[in-house]
Amino acid sequence: MLTQNDRIAGGIWGAVVADALGVPVEFSSREERRRDPVTGVRGYGTYNQPPGTWSDDSSMLLCTVEHLYDEYDAAALGTLFVNWCFHGYCTPWGETFDRGNATTKALSRINRGTPAEEAGGTDEGSNGNGSLMRILPVALRFTGAPADTLLDIAHRISGITHRHPRAQMACGVYCLLARELLAGQSAGDAYRRAMAAADACYVDEPFQNERLHFVRLFSGKIGEESERNINSGGYVMDTLEAALWCLLTTDNYADAVLKAINLGGDTDTTACVTGGLAGVLYGPAAIPPEWQEALAKGEMVSELIRSFMLTPRCGVIAD
Length: 319
Hints:
The chain has a single domain, classed as ADP-ribosylglycohydrolase fold (Orthogonal Bundle), CATH 1.10.4080.10. The longest helix has 19 residues, at 4-22. It is mainly α. It is built from 15 helices and no strands.
């Protein structure tokens, strides 16, 4: 029986390990992945990085983990993100090699004095997956909070880089899914319960008009879609749908993550978002040890997780 701390550790490890597996083949096509599927740890490739190198996804996720040892403070979290973006903080090798345009623009605004929660773009183009990829620690930290509190914090933290209501809503839905998995629900039950909660919470503006973009998720049938109907680019809805589809159509961590990577496209982020959910569902022991052992700065990741689980503000029932 997995404890909540097992699931927290599994979620964070699961996201970072999956990100590292996807980095070498980012931007490859689905056809390329069919011809040469990823089956384990690789190196170099797209960014010419050593095996086990994780990307901006994990750097920002781990910055969020570190920040949430204490109460949420937008300015402090924004500063951590700025230090990652421009100074290589919380990176595998001391430099930032991959960052999204919307994220870079938002963090540049913070660097020039814009308040953190006002920095994210609100235009249609600000619906990339750059806040979704790092939002999991919010669900793990605030799982014991009422749904509206959890969603408010998820929206605010998303807004540091992505303030469009669609990106914020996607982060909220993901947090509701992770919370159900953290409570021990199966993938299917977590999906149904999370979407019921989202249906009840997202009834007012500015989210009411965004519901049309979530129709496939609200249908309860995303797991029944064929692969050809699942997109895997950098659009936030593509990533959210693909991650949930991979989770619902597999029965273990490794298969879920490899399925996400072999969709092609934004492989590191699709894998990271999938791996976070799969890690919560299956726990850290389900992650192949050779994948975890290959991870860059594994001791640093382990220490961040240990400290996160020790904080009395973690929002989980003590094991």
